[in-house]
Design brief:
The structure is a homodimer of 423-residue chains. Chain A is α+β, with helices and mostly antiparallel strands. Chain A has 2 domains: 15-30 and 38-117, 2-Layer Sandwich (Phosphorylase Kinase, domain 1); 123-417, Aminoglycoside 3'-phosphotransferase, Chain: A, domain 2. Chain A has helices at residues 15-23, 26-32, 82-97, 125-130, 138-152, 160-170, 174-183, 203-211, 213-228, 263-284, 292-319, 334-365, 371-374, 379-398, 406-418, and strands at residues 39-42, 49-55, 60-66, 69-70, 73-77, 104-108, 113-117, 123-124, 232-234, 243-245, 250-252, 259-261. In chain A, strand 10 and strand 11 (250-252) form a beta hairpin. Chains A and B meet through helix 6, helix 7, helix 9 and helix 12 of A and helix 6, helix 7 and helix 9 of B.
Amino acid sequence: MSSNFKPKNYQPLEVSTIKNFIENSDKIKNIIGDTKEIEIKEVGDGNLNLVFFVESKKNSICIKQPLPYLRVLKDWPLTLKRSYYESEYMNIHSNHVADLMPKIYDFDPELCTITMEKLSPHIIMRHGLINATKYENFAEDISTFMAKTLFFTSDLYLKADQKKELNSRFIMNTELCKITEDLIFTDPYMYNKNNRWTTPHLDKQKKEIENNDDLKIAVSRLKIKFMSESQSLLHGDLHTGSIMVSENDTKVIDPEFAFYGPMGFDVGALLANLLMNFFSQNGHEKNSGERKEFKKWILNLINMIWIKFENKFCNLWDEYPEGDGYPRQLFNNKQIIKREQKNYLQNIYNDSIGFAGAKIIRRIFGFAHNIDFDWIKDDKMRAICENKCANLGIEMQINPSKFKDISSLIEAAIKLDNDSISF
Amino acid sequence: MSSNFKPKNYQPLEVSTIKNFIENSDKIKNIIGDTKEIEIKEVGDGNLNLVFFVESKKNSICIKQPLPYLRVLKDWPLTLKRSYYESEYMNIHSNHVADLMPKIYDFDPELCTITMEKLSPHIIMRHGLINATKYENFAEDISTFMAKTLFFTSDLYLKADQKKELNSRFIMNTELCKITEDLIFTDPYMYNKNNRWTTPHLDKQKKEIENNDDLKIAVSRLKIKFMSESQSLLHGDLHTGSIMVSENDTKVIDPEFAFYGPMGFDVGALLANLLMNFFSQNGHEKNSGERKEFKKWILNLINMIWIKFENKFCNLWDEYPEGDGYPRQLFNNKQIIKREQKNYLQNIYNDSIGFAGAKIIRRIFGFAHNIDFDWIKDDKMRAICENKCANLGIEMQINPSKFKDISSLIEAAIKLDNDSISF
C-alpha cells in the first residue's frame, strides 16, 4: 500500500503502446471499436499522471495512468496505488452522483490505468473562471455533488459497520494524505525549500505567518481534525482544477486523495478556490473595472453553493434517516431533528471556514500555487491580490467566529478587496 | 473479520482437553514445565469467554478463549476475532505499560486462545471497591496507564502514517463496537426488550429518559463522536471489572473492545464506574454511616486520577513532541504549547464527562448492569442509589458545562448523594 506498491507488469504507457493496450482489453475495445484509425494524444499537465486522449470513429476515451513519482520532482516517489483509490471513490459515489463524474470504462490493476469517457467540450473550470466565464448550473451541480457524496458516506446514512468497511478501504491512502498534511497544514508556516511566494512584496507577510503563534495553533488543530475525524468519504482535493465544466454540465475528476475525513475539508477547498478566483480578478482586467460584474457573480456563486448545499444535505437527512448516527427509533419528534440539523450544518460550515483559510495560505505561500494568481503577470498587482486574499485566509483560521454565516464571509471578502494596498 | 470468522480448527477447550493444548505448544510448555501434576479450573464468569486457570509446580497460567456467541444469549453471535484484537492491543501497548497488564505468553490464532500470566493475589477491582477496600497505588497506576496508552497512540506522538496503520488493524472490530453503539448509546433511551431497571421505583425516570429530547440528542452526539473520532487506540471497556488489583498492584485486562476512538471514552468509562461505586456505597452499609470515610476516599480517588492523568499526559507531550499533530518545527515557543495543552486536556475532560454520563445511564437502565448496584439486595435502597446516580449521568450529558473541572464534578456528586429521595 506504499510507494513500494508496484504491480509486476506496471510500465508507463506511451503513445506507441496505447493501441496494444486497447487491443488487450475487450471492455475498452468495445467502446473504441476498430483501432485502425485512432488518434492518440498525450495531454497530461505533467505533474502526477500520464493522460492520453484516444479518438476513434466510434468514440473518445481518456486513459489516465499514474507515474511512480511527482513529475516535477523526480525524487518525490508517489504510490501507484492512488489510481486504486481514485477508481474506488468513483465506484462508491457513482451510486448517487454518476452524472457528475466521468463514466469509468475500466480500471486495470496491473497498469494502474483508469479508462474513462473523454469529456467534451468541457474545460478545467479554473481556466473558465480566469476568463470570466459564468457557469449558471454550477451552484446547483456542485451543491448536489457535495451534499450527496458527503451525506451518503456519513453516519447519518450508513450503518456503523458499513461505514467502517468503507473507511477501511481508504485508511491506508497515507501517502496522498501526507501531501495534504505537509503541503497544506505545515510547510507554509515555516521555512521549507519548496515554499514560494511573490517576492519581495510578500516577504513581510510570510514572516508574519511564521511568527503568528495563534495561526500556527489554528492550522495545527485543523490538521489534527483532518487526521482524526472520519466523517465522510472525501474527494480530498476538490478545487476548481479538479472540476471540468461545459456551459451546462459539471464533472468532478481526480479523486486520488480520497479518504475518510471531515466534511468541511471538501467544502472548504471549493470555497477557498472560488475566493481566490475572486481576489485574482483585478489582476486579469485589461481595462480597470471590467471584471466588476463577474466578481459579483463569483461571490453570489459562493453564497448559492453554501445555501443549496445546506438545504440539500438536510433534505437528504429527512429523506434517508436510516444511519446509526441519530437512530430514527429515538427521534419521532421531527422538530428535534430539524434543530439538530442546524447545529450539524453549522459545524460543517465552521470547519469549512477554517479549512478554506488553510487552503488559501498554502496556495499563496506554499509549494503548489493556483494559476488564478500565477497567471497575473505583473508582480506588484499579483502581490496585491494575493496579500488581500491571504489576509482573509489568516483571519478565517484564527477568528472563524467572525464569519458566522456565508453572508459575513462574503462581506469580509468585499471589504478586504476594497482595501487600498500598495507595494 | 465478522461473526463468520471461524478458524478451521477452532473448538472450545474443556478441562479435559487443556493438557493436550499445553503439550502442543512449546512456548506454553516451557512456562508450565511438567504437565503430569497440573491443576485445571474453569473460572470464567461465563458471559463472553472461557477462562481456565492452570497450575503446575513451576507456574500458573490463565487461558482465555472466546466463544462464538454471548453465553447468556446464545442467539447473539459474537466474532471470535475479538481475541485477535485483544492480543494486538496488548502487544502494541506493552511497549509502554507492560507492567500494568498481564504478561502474554501465547496467542493461538486457530483456537483464538490467549495464554497469559495468572494474576495472584489479584481480584477484580469492582469486588474490592464493593467491600470498601482501598487501593492506595491505584490513582498512580491507572493515570499512568491511561496517559501512556492514549498519548503514545495519538497524533501527538505518532507520525500520521504510523497512526493510520495502527488504526487499520482495529477498524474492522465492528461487532464489538456495535455492542457499545447499541447498548450504551441507543437502547437505554428507548424501549428494548433487553433493558432492565429497578422496577417499579425507576419506571418514572426511565420514561423521562425516553422523553428527554435534549438527552437523546446529547447521547447521539456522543455516539457520533465514538463512531468517527480516531484519537487514540482505546481499551474500549475500561471499567472496574476490567481491572485486577492487589494491595499494591494494578493490571488492566480484557481489551477486546479495542479500537481507535476518542480518548474521553476510556477516561469516562473509569470515572463513571468509580462514581457508580460511590453512589452504591450506602446500599452496602450494614450500619448507617459506616462507609462515610470510604466514600470520601473514592471521591478523592476520582480527583487524583484526573489530576495525575492530566499532568502525566502533558509531561509525555513535553518529553516526546515528535508526532505530526503539532509539529515541533512550528513551535519553538514552549509557552504556546503549554497553553495548547490546557485546551487539549480540557477537550478530553469535556468528552470524558459526556461519555461517563452515558456509561452511567446504560448500567442503570440498559442491558448489562454493575454488581455495585445489583448486589444491593433491598430494591428500594438500590433504587435510591441508582436514581441519584442516574440524575448525575443525565446532567453530565445535557449540561456538561456544569462540570467545568473535576472538583465541580465531585461537588455535584456529593450534593446529589445528600438529596433525600424516597420511593
